[in-house]
UniProtKB/TrEMBL annotation:
It holds the Pfam family DUF218. It comes from Enterococcus faecium (Streptococcus faecium). Gene3D superfamilies: HUPs, YdcF like domain. It comes from the Bacteria. This is YdcF family protein. Signal peptide: none annotated. Residues 46-185 form the DUF218 domain. InterPro entries: Cell_Envelope_Assoc, DUF218, Rossmann-like_a/b/a_fold. One of its GO terms (cellular component) is plasma membrane.
Length: 253
Protein backbone atom coordinates (compact mmCIF):
# COMPACT_ATOMS: atom_id res chain seq x y z
CA UNK A 1 0.00 0.00 0.00
CA UNK A 2 1.39 3.38 -1.00
CA UNK A 3 2.08 5.99 1.64
CA UNK A 4 -0.64 8.35 0.33
CA UNK A 5 -3.19 5.56 0.41
CA UNK A 6 -2.22 4.72 3.99
CA UNK A 7 -2.65 8.37 4.96
CA UNK A 8 -6.07 8.51 3.29
CA UNK A 9 -7.26 5.36 5.03
CA UNK A 10 -6.06 6.67 8.38
CA UNK A 11 -7.87 9.97 7.79
CA UNK A 12 -11.13 8.28 6.85
CA UNK A 13 -11.04 5.87 9.77
CA UNK A 14 -10.26 8.69 12.18
CA UNK A 15 -13.39 10.53 11.01
CA UNK A 16 -15.49 7.38 11.28
CA UNK A 17 -14.34 6.70 14.85
CA UNK A 18 -15.09 10.31 15.80
CA UNK A 19 -18.55 10.28 14.25
CA UNK A 20 -19.58 6.91 15.72
CA UNK A 21 -18.69 8.04 19.25
CA UNK A 22 -19.44 4.78 21.10
CA UNK A 23 -20.04 5.19 24.83
CA UNK A 24 -19.36 1.54 25.66
CA UNK A 25 -16.85 -0.70 23.89
CA UNK A 26 -18.68 -3.85 24.97
CA UNK A 27 -22.02 -3.61 23.15
CA UNK A 28 -23.37 -6.61 25.07
CA UNK A 29 -23.13 -4.69 28.36
CA UNK A 30 -25.46 -1.88 27.31
CA UNK A 31 -28.92 -1.80 28.88
CA UNK A 32 -31.81 0.63 29.31
CA UNK A 33 -35.60 0.59 29.38
CA UNK A 34 -35.80 1.95 25.82
CA UNK A 35 -33.71 1.83 22.67
CA UNK A 36 -34.49 4.48 20.05
CA UNK A 37 -33.53 3.32 16.56
CA UNK A 38 -33.43 6.34 14.27
CA UNK A 39 -34.32 5.85 10.61
CA UNK A 40 -31.33 4.96 8.44
CA UNK A 41 -30.32 2.83 5.48
CA UNK A 42 -28.73 -0.12 7.32
CA UNK A 43 -30.90 -3.23 7.89
CA UNK A 44 -28.25 -4.72 10.16
CA UNK A 45 -29.09 -2.10 12.78
CA UNK A 46 -32.62 -3.47 12.96
CA UNK A 47 -31.06 -6.89 13.58
CA UNK A 48 -28.82 -5.50 16.32
CA UNK A 49 -31.77 -3.74 17.96
CA UNK A 50 -33.81 -6.95 17.88
CA UNK A 51 -30.95 -8.89 19.45
CA UNK A 52 -30.79 -6.37 22.28
CA UNK A 53 -34.48 -6.93 22.97
CA UNK A 54 -34.18 -10.72 22.75
CA UNK A 55 -31.15 -10.64 25.06
CA UNK A 56 -33.07 -8.62 27.65
CA UNK A 57 -30.85 -5.55 27.30
CA UNK A 58 -33.86 -3.33 26.54
CA UNK A 59 -37.56 -3.56 27.33
CA UNK A 60 -38.81 -1.70 24.30
CA UNK A 61 -37.67 -0.61 20.84
CA UNK A 62 -38.81 2.80 19.66
CA UNK A 63 -38.52 3.00 15.87
CA UNK A 64 -38.46 6.59 14.65
CA UNK A 65 -38.25 7.97 11.14
CA UNK A 66 -40.48 8.79 8.20
CA UNK A 67 -39.39 9.10 4.58
CA UNK A 68 -36.00 10.78 4.16
CA UNK A 69 -32.65 10.67 2.42
CA UNK A 70 -31.96 7.08 3.55
CA UNK A 71 -35.33 5.52 2.69
CA UNK A 72 -34.50 4.38 -0.84
CA UNK A 73 -31.19 2.93 0.34
CA UNK A 74 -33.00 1.03 3.13
CA UNK A 75 -35.40 -0.47 0.55
CA UNK A 76 -32.50 -1.46 -1.70
CA UNK A 77 -30.43 -2.98 1.10
CA UNK A 78 -33.36 -5.06 2.32
CA UNK A 79 -34.01 -6.18 -1.27
CA UNK A 80 -30.41 -7.46 -1.48
CA UNK A 81 -31.34 -9.75 1.43
CA UNK A 82 -34.55 -10.92 -0.23
CA UNK A 83 -36.99 -8.74 1.71
CA UNK A 84 -39.46 -6.64 -0.26
CA UNK A 85 -41.73 -3.99 1.20
CA UNK A 86 -44.67 -2.05 -0.16
CA UNK A 87 -43.72 1.27 -1.75
CA UNK A 88 -44.41 4.41 0.27
CA UNK A 89 -43.63 2.96 3.69
CA UNK A 90 -41.62 4.98 6.18
CA UNK A 91 -38.26 3.78 7.49
CA UNK A 92 -39.78 2.96 10.86
CA UNK A 93 -42.69 1.05 9.28
CA UNK A 94 -40.27 -1.01 7.19
CA UNK A 95 -38.23 -1.90 10.27
CA UNK A 96 -41.33 -2.74 12.32
CA UNK A 97 -42.61 -5.14 9.66
CA UNK A 98 -39.18 -6.74 9.37
CA UNK A 99 -38.77 -7.16 13.13
CA UNK A 100 -42.21 -8.72 13.52
CA UNK A 101 -41.79 -11.10 10.58
CA UNK A 102 -38.19 -12.19 11.20
CA UNK A 103 -37.91 -12.01 14.99
CA UNK A 104 -41.54 -12.36 15.99
CA UNK A 105 -41.33 -9.34 18.26
CA UNK A 106 -44.65 -8.61 19.99
CA UNK A 107 -46.52 -5.34 19.56
CA UNK A 108 -45.82 -4.43 23.18
CA UNK A 109 -42.09 -4.40 22.38
CA UNK A 110 -42.41 -1.80 19.64
CA UNK A 111 -43.23 1.89 19.55
CA UNK A 112 -43.25 3.72 16.23
CA UNK A 113 -42.97 7.30 15.00
CA UNK A 114 -43.32 7.55 11.22
CA UNK A 115 -43.46 11.26 10.31
CA UNK A 116 -40.02 12.69 11.13
CA UNK A 117 -37.66 13.50 8.26
CA UNK A 118 -34.51 14.66 10.08
CA UNK A 119 -32.71 14.25 13.40
CA UNK A 120 -34.41 17.24 15.01
CA UNK A 121 -37.83 15.83 14.21
CA UNK A 122 -36.71 12.36 15.34
CA UNK A 123 -36.01 13.84 18.76
CA UNK A 124 -39.04 16.16 18.90
CA UNK A 125 -41.69 13.74 17.69
CA UNK A 126 -40.41 10.82 19.77
CA UNK A 127 -40.53 12.97 22.91
CA UNK A 128 -44.08 14.06 22.11
CA UNK A 129 -45.19 10.44 21.83
CA UNK A 130 -43.49 9.45 25.08
CA UNK A 131 -45.07 12.42 26.86
CA UNK A 132 -48.49 11.38 25.56
CA UNK A 133 -47.90 7.93 27.07
CA UNK A 134 -46.46 9.41 30.28
CA UNK A 135 -43.49 7.15 29.61
CA UNK A 136 -40.36 9.30 29.28
CA UNK A 137 -37.56 6.97 30.46
CA UNK A 138 -34.68 7.92 32.72
CA UNK A 139 -32.23 6.33 30.29
CA UNK A 140 -32.34 5.84 26.52
CA UNK A 141 -29.99 3.98 24.22
CA UNK A 142 -29.63 5.70 20.85
CA UNK A 143 -28.82 3.82 17.65
CA UNK A 144 -28.38 5.26 14.16
CA UNK A 145 -26.17 4.95 11.12
CA UNK A 146 -22.78 5.17 12.87
CA UNK A 147 -21.73 8.08 10.66
CA UNK A 148 -24.63 10.04 12.19
CA UNK A 149 -24.34 8.80 15.77
CA UNK A 150 -22.48 11.70 17.39
CA UNK A 151 -24.90 14.27 15.99
CA UNK A 152 -27.90 12.10 16.84
CA UNK A 153 -27.02 12.13 20.53
CA UNK A 154 -26.23 15.86 20.47
CA UNK A 155 -29.59 16.56 18.84
CA UNK A 156 -31.56 14.50 21.36
CA UNK A 157 -29.73 16.14 24.25
CA UNK A 158 -30.63 19.57 22.87
CA UNK A 159 -34.30 18.80 22.17
CA UNK A 160 -34.81 16.88 25.43
CA UNK A 161 -32.86 19.35 27.56
CA UNK A 162 -35.76 19.86 29.97
CA UNK A 163 -36.00 16.13 30.67
CA UNK A 164 -33.90 14.12 33.11
CA UNK A 165 -33.16 11.44 30.53
CA UNK A 166 -29.60 10.18 30.10
CA UNK A 167 -28.63 9.23 26.54
CA UNK A 168 -26.10 6.54 25.70
CA UNK A 169 -24.86 5.78 22.19
CA UNK A 170 -25.48 2.14 21.28
CA UNK A 171 -22.91 1.50 18.55
CA UNK A 172 -22.66 -2.16 17.49
CA UNK A 173 -19.73 -1.44 15.19
CA UNK A 174 -17.45 1.46 14.33
CA UNK A 175 -16.92 1.35 10.55
CA UNK A 176 -13.31 0.84 9.55
CA UNK A 177 -12.33 1.03 5.89
CA UNK A 178 -10.02 -1.70 4.66
CA UNK A 179 -9.51 -0.33 1.16
CA UNK A 180 -11.18 1.55 -1.66
CA UNK A 181 -12.16 -0.06 -4.97
CA UNK A 182 -15.28 0.50 -7.06
CA UNK A 183 -17.00 0.24 -3.71
CA UNK A 184 -15.73 0.89 -0.20
CA UNK A 185 -14.58 -2.29 1.53
CA UNK A 186 -14.83 -2.45 5.33
CA UNK A 187 -13.16 -4.70 7.88
CA UNK A 188 -16.67 -5.75 9.00
CA UNK A 189 -18.02 -7.63 5.97
CA UNK A 190 -21.63 -6.96 6.89
CA UNK A 191 -21.06 -3.27 6.10
CA UNK A 192 -19.91 -3.90 2.55
CA UNK A 193 -22.31 -2.82 -0.23
CA UNK A 194 -24.54 -0.94 2.24
CA UNK A 195 -23.63 2.63 1.30
CA UNK A 196 -23.25 3.81 -2.31
CA UNK A 197 -19.82 5.43 -2.45
CA UNK A 198 -20.98 8.98 -3.22
CA UNK A 199 -23.71 8.77 -0.59
CA UNK A 200 -21.15 7.59 1.97
CA UNK A 201 -18.83 10.47 1.11
CA UNK A 202 -21.70 12.92 1.50
CA UNK A 203 -22.76 11.41 4.83
CA UNK A 204 -19.35 11.49 6.45
CA UNK A 205 -18.03 14.80 5.17
CA UNK A 206 -21.41 16.48 5.47
CA UNK A 207 -21.54 15.43 9.12
CA UNK A 208 -18.20 17.11 9.77
CA UNK A 209 -19.55 20.35 8.31
CA UNK A 210 -22.67 20.14 10.45
CA UNK A 211 -20.75 19.36 13.64
CA UNK A 212 -18.24 22.18 13.11
CA UNK A 213 -19.43 25.08 15.26
CA UNK A 214 -19.28 28.00 12.83
CA UNK A 215 -21.85 30.04 10.92
CA UNK A 216 -22.47 27.13 8.53
CA UNK A 217 -22.74 24.41 11.17
CA UNK A 218 -25.48 23.14 13.44
CA UNK A 219 -23.91 24.39 16.69
CA UNK A 220 -24.61 27.58 18.69
CA UNK A 221 -22.65 29.76 16.24
CA UNK A 222 -24.74 28.50 13.34
CA UNK A 223 -28.24 27.01 13.24
CA UNK A 224 -28.17 26.16 16.97
CA UNK A 225 -29.64 22.69 16.45
CA UNK A 226 -27.05 21.05 18.72
CA UNK A 227 -24.75 22.01 21.60
CA UNK A 228 -21.14 22.95 20.85
CA UNK A 229 -19.03 19.93 19.95
CA UNK A 230 -15.26 19.96 20.29
CA UNK A 231 -13.41 18.68 17.24
CA UNK A 232 -9.71 18.05 17.78
CA UNK A 233 -7.16 19.56 15.43
CA UNK A 234 -6.13 16.06 14.40
CA UNK A 235 -9.67 15.07 13.38
CA UNK A 236 -10.29 18.38 11.60
CA UNK A 237 -7.02 18.03 9.69
CA UNK A 238 -8.12 14.60 8.49
CA UNK A 239 -11.41 16.08 7.31
CA UNK A 240 -9.64 18.94 5.52
CA UNK A 241 -7.28 16.61 3.66
CA UNK A 242 -10.12 14.37 2.53
CA UNK A 243 -12.34 17.23 1.44
CA UNK A 244 -9.55 18.71 -0.65
CA UNK A 245 -9.27 15.42 -2.52
CA UNK A 246 -13.00 15.00 -3.21
CA UNK A 247 -15.26 17.36 -5.12
CA UNK A 248 -18.77 16.81 -3.75
CA UNK A 249 -21.60 19.00 -2.45
CA UNK A 250 -22.20 17.87 1.12
CA UNK A 251 -25.08 20.20 1.95
CA UNK A 252 -28.32 18.61 3.07
CA UNK A 253 -31.38 19.97 4.79
Amino acid sequence: MEKNEQRTLKDWNQLLAFLAAPDEKDFEKLSAPTLILAGNGLPILADKAAQMYVNGQVERLFLVGGVGHATRILYENFEKQGFHFEEGMSESEICRQYLKEVYGLPDKALLIESKSTNSGENATFSLEILHSLDAVPEKVLLMNDPTLQRRTRATFEKVWQNEQTVFVNAVPFVPEILHFSEEIIFTAKELNHQWPKEYFYALVLGEMERLHDDENGYGPKGKDFIPHIDISEEVWSSYTRIKQSIKTDFSRT
